[in-house]
């Protein structure tokens, strides 16, 4: 296996199908790639080089720890109240818990980030403002979210060493299904300068129940079809896949509807 560095990664990403001027949303595991000279910043630099100045790179920049540690407590004792007070408010520069590569994007000058306390998205490039501008507090991965904006931009989904259990577009697709699974989000938020706890509804977690199978079914059905194809390549030690968001979300919406109905 050749040593991975920024120059080689550019060639690898282009061979996988990353094209100049496109919009790509990346879900990634740096460790799965193996040793990379320059680490996560080199991976991000290579992706930006492959996309060119006309392309836009987006990453989930989620912060699930910005959450109520005692969501079901009607009456708090002193210890629980103190735990709630220790939960930080979301801020645009807050590190994400999604790994080294999203944090490398957050470190870039000029990147933008949507404002949701738990499920923000970061992006850099000409379409970054469009991707990050709108995100409602409730149903934050739904029709008024960065994922809807990415879909409208015909984004490509890039999975670097991770599976469809990490593919956030599956949450967006499930949100389009009537009767989808639901969960509560609860997080601290500033309202008129006062810290309050906000509770909203969103698509429920999958926990590996349906998402890996739905992703695999799409890959089996659409591999090799022009415009809908899944591109595969081993980069370093990682199995990597590139697929178009529009047909993937439509397929996932239909399939998840069937699975949830049954």
Radius of gyration: 19 Å
Tally of individual domains:
1
Shape: globular
Please state the structural category. alpha+beta
Largest sheet: 7 strands, mixed
Pick out the low-confidence regions.
none
Encode the helix/strand succession as letters: HEHHEHHEEHHEHEEHEEH
Helix content: 25-40%
- Major sheet strand order: 3-4-2-1-5-9-8
The count of β-strands is 9
Mean pLDDT: 95
Specify the number of helices: 10
Task: Classify the beta-strand content into a percent band.
Answer: 15-25%
C-alpha end-to-end distance: 45 Å
Pfam families: Antibiotic_NAT (PF02522)
Protein name: AAC(3) family N-acetyltransferase
InterPro entries: Amioglycoside_AcTrfase, Antibiotic_NAT-like
Family: Belongs to the antibiotic N-acetyltransferase family.
Q: What are the SSEs and their pairings?
A:
Elements: H1 6-16, E1 23-28, H2 30-33, H3 39-51, E2 56-60, H4 78-86, H5 100-106, E3 112-113, E4 121-124, H6 128-132, H7 146-152, E5 156-160, H8 169-175, E6 182-191, E7 194-203, H9 211-222, E8 231-235, E9 238-244, H10 245-261
Parallel strand pairs: 1-2, 1-5
Antiparallel strand pairs: 2-4, 3-4, 5-9, 6-7, 8-9
